[in-house]
Write a structure and sequence with these properties.
heterotrimer, A alpha+beta, B mainly alpha, C alpha+beta, A: alpha+beta, Glutaredoxin, two-stranded antiparallel sheet, 8 helices, 12 strands, elongated, B: mainly alpha, Cytochrome C Oxidase, Chain A, 14 helices
Chain lengths: ~250, ~475, ~180
């Protein structure tokens, strides 16, 4: 448990670094919104054969794209997603399944089963590990473009989560390792909870007025809000100080 | 000596305000003529004109209210001549810097200088820092003035007395708080808050400007701060005018002095609170603002108008109804000003309703309503005070001539000029357009009509101003 | 709707003007020095209460009609991405890359179906106001850099709609516009 906590802490720290260093282009993340995800036939490690749309119809989906031989971002992506979903309890009452799908044609169902075991997720009911035989059409339907490097035998690829609602529409995409706030936003969006606004990634939000709170699904005051309250607070303090000073002078 | 100094300073404030007022009206008329197609300005020049018109008008009617309140306050407490003079000097420097940055430097980001527009420089590079520093100069001068007046009040009245809290329960408390003191304090505290907001805003903007982009601001935060400052100062300057009316209206009318009652005290205390939340209505169309604050904005906008407007308007009506009153130009101006203010307030309440704002936001409806309670409201409050002051303290006394002619011109010009705005607002004509795309068929005609009526208004103002101006010049030049 | 608001305003303004005129004339006619209240700052409670109730009712009717709640429960039939910049609007059915904003030449939207505009800005604050074929605003939102505003609307009337910028954005603010058609 301790070890687990440490790992997740490191990932948490890394995720901030990743966020800070390699912010993805804001526009990229906005592609494919409200388009239908390709209805790929899936082979799930439980032995089921379903199509993407059938699976989504059961429960809206968070789709994570990985490959089992990945030595890069795949593991942090899964672990952080698991953490975010566990430790943000109030999104628990929102329905979702996580579909972890391999985009490497070499991966078999067995490979995915091993991967699930590695993350201790093989018995989690709402985590589905799967492979598909039409991966290229699936990834092109969400604009995901891994590049194969022969020298390293690795794919160069982004960490991508795609939210799919029960009608099979892409509602939101998250690029890069993201914190639980963003995961919460993703879960809300696949449940068709309308949020009239959101911040784009890549902006400094040190002094932003509001932060999105996935627990309540609402925006909560950020540091910037303090700046808005500050003038009123200061004015009243000054009023009291002036009175105290002038009273002590006259006394 | 000090009281005399303040009297002289008040005369100088009046002269400065009147000169800048006439110039700014002319700038306004030029804008409407350009929109109507009668003159052709380069768009950059038009927007520089618009920027200077807006900031000058806000500035002068704010200082007009402050100068009036400072002068009347001398009746109750000793105020600081030095702070008054300091504010005067800083205001003159600030205004010169503003006019230089806009008219010479061509700065044209609008008087609200909404971030990040001031940093997308499409004018002389020095004009942006010049404009921001001008605001800093004004801010410092006004902060000192506000703090000195607050100190003057708090030396005599305790906090509960200055806010008339003893009137909440007790019908005849030992220490009475005159309505003038109550409303002045409420307004000064509101002004202090919005000036502090301006300081925070300027610090954030300077941080970005002088770090050459290493520090980047959040557009939403800056917009909130901008309207905290901009809306609140525009709102408080009206209340400064009202403080003067509560004091002078009964006096000029030859009626007994008005006294604070429990509900007047409560109403104005509530106003202090609500007015600081009303600015949220400027961000209704920014869906990024949480819904809670939007609703607060609508309710606070309603509630801020309720006590001050409800109490004041009804009091004035009751004070006049079937009551023999010594009517003079001053209290007539107050009376008409109150009517203009309420009518503008109705326009404001309509626009401060989110579902209406969806259709009216940033159309000409917005200048329509705020010109109502400025040009036909607050300006008349201050003109009433100027007139009273200049007659009361000048050696050149004599019957006021052409009063009804002046007033008819004022009403005709004012109403016509405002009607052109309201109708255009209902026709969805955008505000802040240097010229109108051809699809807006009625916009040009309405702009020209607006310019014509504004000229009639200008003539009326000119007639008023010239006599006040002469008397004030006399007061400044002749030592007494 | 706008004309209804104008009418409401004119009626209220006329009533207020009339009250002030009547009150003024009543004072002019009065010749009795002793009439009138000693302190008019009294007994306004009923007036305030009535005003309070009127405004309360007005708020209760209007707040649920705020744009933030419009069509929140439905799914849009069409999504349009909008990127505003000095001094253009880029509109596309696909997401817009802020580094290389490219949009569709023409945008066609279905009548009577839910359309969602995802509006952002590439530089300064802009407005995004949709004008009907008869040049009345039907819906609007702001375009703020760093944020995306989601405006949902169902267009009833087919025809060419114009979008104008309604937040002052600089020298060519007045010519910043685009169009789309509703069929």
């Amino acid at each position: 448990m301790h070890k687990y906590g440490l790992t997740s802490f490191l990932i948490f720290v890394c995720s901030f670094l990743v966020d800070a260093v390699a912010q993805p282009a804001a526009g990229w993340q906005e592609t494919n919104i409200n388009e239908v995800i390709y209805n790929a036939p899936l082979q799930i490690i439980s032995g089921d054969h379903v199509s993407m749309h059938q699976l989504a119809a059961q429960n809206p989906l968070v789709v994570a794209f990985v490959f089992t031989r990945c030595s890069g971002i795949c593991a942090p992506l899964i672990i952080q997603l698991k953490e975010s979903l566990q430790f943000a309890p109030n999104i628990g009452n929102k329905k979702y399944n996580v579909l972890v799908i391999s985009f490497d044609p070499r991966d078999s169902v067995k490979d995915m089963e091993n991967m699930a075991t590695r993350f201790n997720l093989q018995h989690e009911g709402n985590w589905k590990f799967a492979v598909t035989d039409s991966i290229s059409r699936l990834i092109s339907s969400v604009n995901f473009n891994p590049v194969w490097y022969e020298q390293t035998l690795q794919f160069d690829h982004d960490a991508l989560l795609v939210g799919v609602n029960s009608q099979g529409f892409v509602t939101k995409k998250l690029l890069g390792l993201r914190n639980s706030k963003d995961i919460g936003l993703l879960i809300n969006s696949i449940n068709n909870v309308f949020s009239p606004t959101y911040r784009l990634p890549g902006q400094s939000n040190l002094f932003s007025c509001y932060n999105y709170n996935p627990k309540t699904g609402k925006n909560t005051p950020g540091l910037g809000m303090l700046f808005i309250a500050l003038p009123a607070i200061l004015s009243f303090s000054i009023l009291i100080i002036i009175r105290l000073v002038s009273k002590s002078k006259s006394a | 000596m000090e009281a005399k100094g303040i009297k002289k300073n008040t005369a100088i404030w009046i002269i400065a305000v009147l000169v800048l007022f006439v110039l700014s009206i002319i700038l306004g008329i030029i804008m409407r003529l350009n929109q109507g197609g009668a003159v052709h300005l380069d768009p950059g020049t038009f927007y520089a004109d618009m920027t200077i018109h807006g900031i000058t008008m806000i500035g002068i009617w704010f200082v007009a209210g402050m100068a009036g309140v400072n002068f009347i306050m001398e009746r109750y407490v000793k105020t600081s001549y030095r702070a008054n003079t300091f504010a005067l000097v800083m205001t003159v420097i600030g205004v010169v810097m503003l006019w230089v940055s806009t008219l010479i430097g061509d700065f044209h980001a609008g008087w609200t200088f909404l971030y990040p527009l001031p940093f997308k420089i499409a004018w002389s590079a020095w004009a942006t820092p010049m404009f921001l520093w001008a605001l800093a100069v004004l801010g410092v001068g006004w902060l000192v003035w506000v703090l000195s007046l607050m100190t003057a009040l708090l030396k005599k009245y305790s906090i509960s007395q200055v806010f008339a809290w003893q009137h909440f329960r007790n019908k005849n408390p030992e220490v009475e708080t005159p309505p003038f003191i109550l409303i002045s304090m409420i307004s000064l505290l509101g002004v202090l808050a919005c000036l502090i907001a301006a300081v925070v805003l300027l610090v954030l903007l300077f941080a970005e400007y002088y770090s050459h982009g290493a520090f980047v601001n959040d557009a939403l935060l800056i917009k909130n701060l901008t309207y905290f400052f901009g809306h609140t100062i525009a709102n408080e300057m009206l209340y400064l005018g009202l403080a003067i009316i509560y004091e002078l209206f009964p006096e000029i009318s030859g009626r007994p002095k008005w006294k604070t009652t429990w509900y007047v005290a409560i109403a104005w205390n509530l106003t202090l609170f609500f007015v600081l939340l009303a600015f949220f209505h400027h961000l209704y169309m920014d869906f990024v603002q949480p819904e809670g604050l939007q609703i607060v904005g609508q309710l606070a906008s309603y509630l801020a108008s309720l006590p001050s407007a409800g109490v004041t308007v009804f009091s004035v009506i009751v004070a006049v109804y079937r009551t023999k009153i010594k009517w003079s130009l001053s209290n007539l101006l107050f009376f008409i000003g109150i009517a203009g203010w309420v009518i503008g307030g109705v326009g404001a309440v309509i626009d401060a309703t989110i579902s209406n704002n969806f259709l009216l936001h940033n159309t000409l409806w917005v200048p329509a309503h705020f010109h109502s309670y400025n040009a036909m409201g607050n300006v008349l409050f201050s003109l009433g005070f100027f007139h009273w002051f200049s007659v009361e303290y000048s050696k050149r006394k004599g019957p006021e001539r052409l009063s009804s002619l002046k007033l008819s011109f004022l009403l005709l010009g004012g109403i016509g000029f405002l009607a052109a705005f309201y109708v255009a607002g209902a026709e969805s004509v955008p505000r802040r357009y240097s010229s109108y795309p051809v699809e807006f068929t009625s916009a040009k005609l309405l702009a020209t009509l607006g310019a014509v009526f504004a000229t009639v208004y200008l003539i009326a103002i000119f007639l008023f101003v010239s006599s006040i101006f002469k008397r004030c010049i006399n007061m400044v030049l002749h030592r007494s | 709707m706008q004309y209804a608001l104008l009418l409401l305003f004119l009626v209220l303004a006329a009533v207020i003007a009339l009250v002030f005129i009547i009150v003024y004339l009543s004072s002019k006619k009065s010749d009795d020095e002793l009439k009138g209240m000693a302190n008019p700052l009294q007994k306004r409670f009923w007036f305030l209460l009535i005003l309070f109730v009127c405004l309360g009712i007005f708020a209760l009717i209007t707040i649920p009609r705020s744009p933030y709640y419009l069509f929140a429960k439905e799914q849009p039939a069409k999504v349009v991405h909008v990127a505003a910049g000095q001094f253009f609007f880029t509109m596309s059915y696909k997401a817009i890359n802020p580094d290389k904003p490219e949009g569709e030449m023409t945008i066609e939207l279905p009548a009577n179906q839910l359309v969602e505009f995802r509006v952002t800005s590439l530089d300064v604050n802009h407005g995004f106001a949709i004008y009907s074929p008869s040049k009345q605003i039907v819906a609007q939102t702001q375009a703020m850099p760093g944020y995306v505003n989601l405006l949902r609307w169902k267009f009833e009337e087919p025809g060419t709609y114009t979008v104008h910028c309604l937040e002052y954005c600089g020298m060519a603010h007045q010519v910043m516009q685009t169009t789309f058609t509703v069929k």
